[in-house]
Amino acid sequence: MVQQTGQIVVQATELRKDFAMGDDTVQALRGVDLTVAQGELVAIAGHSGSGKSTLLGILGGLDTPTAGQIAIGGVDITSMSENQLAEIRNSKIGFVFQFFNLIPTLTALENVELPVLFSSAPKYAPRQRAKELLALVGLEDRMQHRPAQLSGGQQQRVAIARALANAPDLILADEPTGNLDSTIGQAVLQTLLDLRRETGTTLIVVTHDSDIAGLADRHLTMKDGLFVQDTAGC
Amino acid sequence: MPGTRLRLGFYVKSAFRSLQRERRRSLFAIFAIAAGVAAIVGLQSLGLSIDDSITGDIKATHQGDVVVTSRNDNPFRPEQRATLDALASDGRFADWSYFYWVNPDRPSFVRSASDTVSQTQRWLQPYLIEGDKYPFYRELRSIRPRGIPVSQLLESSGDIVLSESIAGNLSVGIGDKIVLENTDTFTVTGIVSNEASGGPFAPYFVPPLPWFGFLEISGPLARKVFAVDDLDANVLFIKTESNRDAADLARELRIVRGSTPASGQPAGVFEPVFRRDQVETASEALDETADATGLIERLLLVSGLVSLAIGGIGILNTMIVVVGRRTNEVGVLKALGLKGRQITLLFMIEGLVLGIAGSVIGVLLGIALSAGLIGFSEQFLLADIDWALHVEPIYTGLVVGIVVTTVFGFLPTLAAAKVRPSAVLQPQVSTRPKTGRLQSLITLLFLTAVMGLVTSIFLNDLLFGMIGAFGALLVLAFLTLLLLGVVSVIGRAPDWNSINLKLALRGLSRQKGRAASTLLALVVGLLAIGSVVILSGSLKQLVDELVEEEAGGNVLTFLTQPTADIRDRAVDEISSMENVVSVESRVYPVNMEDPDNQGRFFGNTLISRTAGPAGSGFSTSDTLVILSGRDLRPEDEGQPVVVMHVPPWMTAEPEVGDDLSFVFSGKFVDGKFVGERVVLKLVGITSEFPAQGGFEEGMWLAPLGVIPQAIPPASIFFVVAAPPSEAPAVAAQLNRNVPGAIAIEVDTVASVFREILDRVSVFPTILSGLALFAGAIIIANSVALATMERRREIALMKSVGAKGTRVLTALLLENGLLGLTGGAIGVALSVVVLVILNQLDSDIPVSPEPLPIIGLLALAVGISLGAALLSAWPASREKPLSVLRHE
Asked: Rg of chain A's alpha carbons, rounded to an integer?
């Protein structure tokens, strides 16, 4: 288990999110509270439509809540402008998606460089940083390959390397093994856990994967836009 | 800043990679812009080349430092020559030469001497020149034999130099003999290009006949054939030592007085010698010509801008699809921290790369285009145009191409910035980003203003540019709305249980905006080419009607000299033919006194027609409309009656029943006409007389017998009506058996006009073809975009059993429908435009024929199918599995 400092990385209070679907309003989140400490691994499970991805999007500054408050690393992002949110996403958050979401026209190396390139105050030399991270995920021999030339597992490892590019406080992973077979999924999961151990990054994972849930510090279950279960992990 | 520099590097790299990834789409988008830029560069280069060639060496065009042109084509008088001789002996100018553009009351004709059987006559415009001097400032050399000065080809009195058109029509070459006016034989010593006539006789925008021959003006044979007195001329060229001398000389020529007493002035006051003539210096001509060529340049530039605007639609569609397809990618980039304006910049750079590539290719194509169009523009303007590489169109093309790409690509890139980063969490839900209405409107107005500014820079007129741009925006908005409606209606058409048709109709309705913009490009192209084709067809039809139907016969017979001897022989010959009728017409110079306005008069020509020996009536024309009174009748023969058209300029308003006083061979002396006076009763007022056999409108028609025999006519001609199959034989018989008569089939006259129309219409047809070409590229682009968007759908269809041919058929059906609709709307609009023009100016004919319209529709459908096939074929051949795996 990674040492937790007790410093709060994510503080969400009474988060609500409504979507208009034609004439109806769907309440995707109905007052979610969540606090995640630095270094913690939190797994969020739930059925399809329970609000997991919506929550993840709001936590990552990809979307804004209809009501409630959200702070990342002690900074309130609830009413930030789109540009301010972009800065937060770039510097404080890393994303890993189910469908990898690599830029198809760029090589693995170029994909990993992106967050550093987009930074208004780069902490690293983009190329060097990307090489280090790809080596870290075991892809030093695939740096010049494009996504279409990589297997699903390799693509997801590139995505993990990209998520780490600016050494974020928080990594948000949406079903990171959901699009991979179990063996490869296992390997990717291991990569994620190894990196978390080495970097001490906070990790929130939305997953159906019981393996991940079993390894998490906390295991949350969502239903109809609310947490219905909060279980401490191993 | 290093961060910014690195980011810019990423944008550029990303743009190139994206373009490379979708090669076909990128290529069509590049060519959409390239076609527009090529049109701009090509047409502006052409305009500048025309400008350079015509105004660059104005002395060569004008052919003299000072040119004196007789206003009414009458030969110069001895008094005028004496004045020039006196000025020359004073050393006021270096040299002078004279030229006679033989323009009698009827056309001149020529035939090959070896054609003794059919004796087919061809129309010829004789130019009588001083071979050793003409022209002062331009090299006039033959093309056969190559490069010989015309002066060396007109050494003998019987020599003639022909234009290549007439030499081709007669099938004659160097050394062959030709017969002019059915009288004397000349030897062809040289052939010059059709553009060689040049000079002030070719006012460039109303070209003279390209069927001409140069003869030595002082050659006795030429003088005899055309009854030209020694030193007769209607244009004088004067060469001075300097431009200043030219201006001084022109000023003096306008006021110098001769020895003719001025009417109404005290004794000893004389008329200015060149009072009735036009005296113009080369620099004055330059001003006039520069205005006209400037207009041509602007027209060409506007045509290019229209093509480019069509190309812009291609960029607009491409960028919409590019942004739409990369919604998820934009979401990812935003999730990684890229800001909205940076996303806009990223896509703008991609658009910019397309614009730069398209503009560079367009510039190269445009240069080639301008060189290729030179020949056609020479045919159109009948002037030698020297092609030259100009820098201005190159940077115009580059700047305008890039600006238009940026302008048209901007709205979609703005939409890209609106993509929510959360889109990345739902990659399967593809929602096309949209900009807000208010933002779109403001951006559109701003971009239109930018386009207006660009246009006004090139047109040198800010107001015109702005009004043009916003006017175009309104028209485009209206047309797009209209076409959106059309697309909606087509989309709802019944599919008659045909799955292919159903797929095609659904495909059309799916992207109504793009279908409408593609339709718009097609409509503009078809409108341009349709207008040219229908107008040229209508003109040809008009020519046929005027020449063939309204002539009232099928063989025109002119007498080279209006003598009683030749006339009697012609009458005898016609009378001897079976099934042939004719009407004899004589032309008399006449003045009519205006009883209400003494001291003023109206000069005109009277055609007096009567039934010939075998004739059956007066008016052979079916289209002559009697406005009041009646037409002439056979029983009017010998009666002092007249039928006339009242021209708008006539202040007197004669009515049926009035007695009108005509003065034949009249002169205006001391405020009165002196001459043979005949009083005729007005029995009918007609619409304008149709032009017949080269005669002009506004003529008086009277029975032949009322004109005293002593009055000599200016010319005599016969309209002979023979059975159609016998017309060639009748013409040949008259040519053979009546010396001094020239018989020509009416169809030959019509064919001359048709040939001129064909030559003249090639250039505008090519110009309008450019717009259509741009339209074709837009279609190819749209289909490429549609197939790209529907790759997954096509693969799914194939995976459930659809064959490649079904996919192909549905795509072709969809675009064939689009082509047919665009063609129909474009052709209909061109008819509407021509009808409006016809209402404004009744000289512009509009009589669309079904065959050209069917041809235009077939062209529209063909272009659509051809362009669609480029993308639809590979799309229909794709393996479904590879698509489903990667899309």
From this structure: 17
Q: Who wins on pLDDT, A22 or A24?
A: A24
Q: How far is B348 from chain A (nearest CA, A)?
A: 17
In single-letter form, the type of residue at position B281 comes to T
Average pLDDT in the B685-713 region?
63
Helix (H) or strand (E) holding B463: helix B462-491
Smallest Cβ–Cβ distance between B334 and the set A86, A105, A126 belongs to: A86
Cα separations in angstroms, B673 against B77, B207, B608, B667 = 21, 37, 21, 5
Cross-chain residue pair A103–B13, CB shorter than 8 Å: no
Measured CA distances, B423 to A54, B331, B343 (Å): 11, 5, 15
What tens digit of pLDDT does each residue of A54-93 get?
Answer: 899 899 988 889 999 999 988 999 988 888 888 899 999 9
Q: B13 burial class (0-12, 13-18, 19+ CB within 10 angstroms)?
A: middle
Are the beta carbons of A56 and A174 closer than 8 angstroms?
Answer: yes
* Matching residue, tokens 């959360």: B422
ipTM above 0.85? no
Q: Who's near B247: CB < 8 A, 6+ residues apart?
A: B281, B283
* Residue A85: partners with Cβ closer than 8 Å, 6 or more residues away: A61, A64, A77, B421
Task: List beta partners, residue B214.
Answer: B127, B161
Q: Looking at beta carbons, which residues of chain A come within 8 Å of B335? A: 60, 62, 89, 95, 101
Q: Which residues of B touch A87 (CB under 8 A)?
A: 337
Stated as kind and residue range, the H or E segment containing B817 is helix B804-840
So what's the pLDDT on residue A141?
94
In degrees and rounded to multiples of 5, residue B634 shows phi and psi of: -55, -35
Cβ-nearest to B337 among A89, A113, A174:
A89
Number of CB atoms found within 10 A of residue A98's CB: 20
pLDDT at residue A44 greater than cutoff 90: yes
Please give the residue of chain A at the shortest CA–CA distance from B7: A117
Assign B264 a pLDDT band (cuts: 50, 70, 90).
low
Residue B857 pLDDT class (50, 70, 90 cuts): very high
For B283-300, the pLDDT digits (tens) are 887 777 777 777 777 777
CB B522 within 8 A of CB B826: yes
Share of chain B above pLDDT 90, in %: 9
- Greatest C-alpha distance within chain B: 107
